[in-house]
Amino acid sequence: MKILVMNGPNLNMLGKRDANHYGNFTLADVEAMLQQTASALGVKVSFFQSNHEGALIDEIQVASQQFAGIVFNPGAYTHYSYAIRDAIEACGIPVVEVHISDILQREEFRKISVIQPVCVGQITGLGIGSYTEGFKILVAKIESEAIENG
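The structure corresponding to this sequence follows.
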């Protein structure tokens, strides 16, 4: 099983952003932690980050042919990118949306996720742990579907 972990705009700036919302860890820290999680679960993991909406859409489309699922922090695109939403809906593989901060406890515009309705789950507010939880949920979902489909 191969899982793709995607990160959207400004997540490459983790460690430099507001620590109250985003902690003190870096994207490299997230990737190292998820590499360990993947290893413990016996799955492979790849990573992709872009600040560009089209690049994220392109990666979702490619991922549908190469990966069993996606853990995705779309960053600010969460709140308004219907193009990313449509790509997720069309990709045919499960996607779990993750956020470091609790988007429901932040500014009004951040409380809306146009992505969430086409994802199999949403994890928010656990800091770096949102990625781990999202990853575990995704792997369990894929394994469950594999058992159901024989």
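The chain has five helices and five strands.
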